[in-house]
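Quick one - inputs below.
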Amino acid sequence: MKKMNLKLTLLILISLGFTLPQQKQHIVFFGDSITQAGVGASGYITVLGNLIKEKGKVDQYQLTGAGIGGNKVYDLYLRADDDVLAKNPSTVVIWVGVNDVWHKRTHGTGTDADKFEKFYHALIRKLQAKNIKVLICTPAAIGEKTDYSNELDGDLNKYSNIIRDIAKKNNCELIDLRKAFLAYNLANNPENKKDGILTTDGVHLNDKGNRLVADEMMKALVK
Amino acid sequence: MKKMNLKLTLLILISLGFTLPQQKQHIVFFGDSITQAGVGASGYITVLGNLIKEKGKVDQYQLTGAGIGGNKVYDLYLRADDDVLAKNPSTVVIWVGVNDVWHKRTHGTGTDADKFEKFYHALIRKLQAKNIKVLICTPAAIGEKTDYSNELDGDLNKYSNIIRDIAKKNNCELIDLRKAFLAYNLANNPENKKDGILTTDGVHLNDKGNRLVADEMMKALVK
Amino acid sequence: MKKMNLKLTLLILISLGFTLPQQKQHIVFFGDSITQAGVGASGYITVLGNLIKEKGKVDQYQLTGAGIGGNKVYDLYLRADDDVLAKNPSTVVIWVGVNDVWHKRTHGTGTDADKFEKFYHALIRKLQAKNIKVLICTPAAIGEKTDYSNELDGDLNKYSNIIRDIAKKNNCELIDLRKAFLAYNLANNPENKKDGILTTDGVHLNDKGNRLVADEMMKALVK
Amino acid sequence: MKKMNLKLTLLILISLGFTLPQQKQHIVFFGDSITQAGVGASGYITVLGNLIKEKGKVDQYQLTGAGIGGNKVYDLYLRADDDVLAKNPSTVVIWVGVNDVWHKRTHGTGTDADKFEKFYHALIRKLQAKNIKVLICTPAAIGEKTDYSNELDGDLNKYSNIIRDIAKKNNCELIDLRKAFLAYNLANNPENKKDGILTTDGVHLNDKGNRLVADEMMKALVK
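Output:
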């Protein structure tokens, strides 16, 4: 009798168009200073939240920023337990790489390519072991010139290739921000300026940059 | 009656010079290329093993090398589970720092001082959480000149000071190899040579260097 | 009478196909290790000499190598008097820039972009003040990958742009080896290899590289 | 008669304490940002001028600053004609070296030790060829800690040793500012501070630093 009743109730609910209460997706954005600024008033995470609201899906997503300025891939690995796993996310977006390349030149403390790969794999494994969905991003830019004459373009392309390869090997969805930024600049930076198009300083996002990133994240996260 | 018997047995055993079977101390040496070479025929771990044998204490100590060339402090952190904890050591000797300084100059991929400290603390905590006794060493040398004119002396001294401070804060015994190497060179390197006294190339140990390190380790480990 | 005779003599000479003895062009190639190797058995200067021979113009050109390994633009400036002006050239081909970029990464001793430009200008002025014809080259490659993912591609493109600009400002003919190398690789390096197409190691020329450089020099120098 | 009169006149002049009009020594201070600041209100050149005034020797010395921020030894070589020789000095004080070491770390554009030496020799020869008296200084400090744990102490000591050797080889008087700064700090920096004793930032001089440098220069220049 009890069983019959339950089945019946479910059938009625379904026929009436109800859905069972769904668990919110908790997305943690894990990265460096760009992600740290992402939770600001005009930051990309805030913009993404607004886009989700416009879609009427605000109840389905919880967005949490976990960015710290100056972070490289091994810094993320070190604080993954405290700053990500402790928050019980269902999804994590990793966006890292600018400092691993940049600090070679500015501080002598960048990350070797082979170790970048090793720590990135270890970080993904740590998250995937908890059944977390992991999406990874290429570093967008250190300079916005479109003729590959930004000082660090070569190395940044090299590390972006590594990340694209890591995505394939680990079955992670790739958000190819470097590709998106270059395409946007090719269309909108005819004077070959080094910044001011999507960034304030070649690295950190201005309003258009925050919007572009939010749009790319939207495509990947909200389907 | 039973108690009496036990006491008696113990007294007899003691009077006969017997000791109760003791558990072997398992010491893992955790480091970079210098430690990787330490298990070689004339390496410092091998020499230390011989010194222990001469003392007739071979049954009390098991020595295991866990050195990998090019390793910096964060590399040790990444492989601590697999290469150290999995071996169930009672004691770990950490000797790292040369590459964290050196690679700034040669590869642009050294370690920032604040992150060096952060990873070193995290590594010690990881080991101490398993009740492992941790001893830590200062980096011996990048160049053997005694007038502080080896190119990286300043930074190496800075990182050595950080390690000395870490030892205090974490109640780790310090094996101050940098101090020992400088003292030896002041006495034995009157021509202010850059290598050839305790090292082959300013960094990696020759026979005298391996012996000096083994002697310093002996003092700290076998009492 | 005398005049008539001279005219007549000239007319006869011309009709016989003689030309008046012409002064040889003395070309000095001024650069780094690539140019130092250029005078070797298969080096680009030797190959260029052979091309000139094939054209039957061997009497018109004298080729002299003045390359020293590791040289940057300021090293050329320092030795311009002794190694170039003292040889009384009519033409100088300057080919420099690889080390100015490369040594930033490998030794911390590259050349700032603004100082690269300043020394390059000063060097050209020094030569042009002696009525020497100056041709300048872009640095060909540090790595032969064609997707701009060679580590130093960005900076090398930046310095190549500076050189192209210097050529314009100083009325020097430009030999755009970087452009020629990239075009060749796009056509002949489908696997995106880092070396082995025109270079042995990404920088120094193999036989095909020496031939390509000689061809480009031929176009610019022998008309 | 004429001769007699002249002799007589001279004797009278001498007995009255007059001296014959002497040619002023024109001293040019050739260096980097420290020397650029040296002509400021409290700069070391200004302080030196005041010390000379106090000695009543203001008519005997003309002091000219020729410092430009960021200059390394090869920058001095490039502008020696325009900025020094064109001013017809009788004496030149060269003080350079901080940037040659420092920029290795901060910009990847320091100066190789062998090239530092080569340009320094060439610069001295250029000046001595005009019968100019040349005095040279060691770089004072990049950080004021007294235990050789300033990051660049090793390399700065190395370049100071090179300069001491250059002084000997070229018969230049040495003003050993590095030695003077260390001695002062050993006496007056008991807390091992990194700056604030003789410098504002470890490199650029505060009032006490300007005074110390002026005192050292006084000893060498005004005898």
